[in-house]
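[Meeting: bench + compute handoff]

Bench side (C.D.) handed over the final construct sequence. Compute side (W.E.) agreed to return the predicted structure before the next meeting so the bench team could plan truncations. Sequence as handed over:
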Amino acid sequence: MLTIAIGVVMMIALQLFVKKTKMGKAMRAVSEDGEAAILMGINKNRTISITFAIGSALAAVASLMYCASYPQATPTLGSMLGLKAFIAAVLGGIGIIPGAMLGGIVVGLVESLTKAYIGTLTGGVITSAFSDAIVFGILIVVLIVKPSGILGKNVGEKV
């Protein structure tokens, strides 16, 4: 429960930061059109540096929450977590903070339910690879059916 509470607090703080502050507006402007943002007086390099600092801080909080639950570290610890985070972001909608959290909850539930129910059907023996395959299958289905994600909007490009 603590992990979910910390995640919700971090999501709300990030959403408020991006939507309500000048730096958040600068981040959105630089991500939309970097050259136009420079013309509007936004320091592009500073904005990108702050964006990466915030991303690193969020990754540190996530790693602390993960290591609190699973107190072991391996050199490849973050590889599958990074892939699943990408799947969660695509599932929820790229660029939509609450969507990424919703996607993460869906990915976690699907993985847990796969291990619980299909593992029971196969005599309690289910590998992590099989549940990972189902999660990747969900990514493929979402990309085919609704590429913008669950909360994403289908926005056409202006010509």
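W.E. noted at the follow-up: The chain has two domains: 1-73, 75-159. C.D. will use this when planning the next construct.
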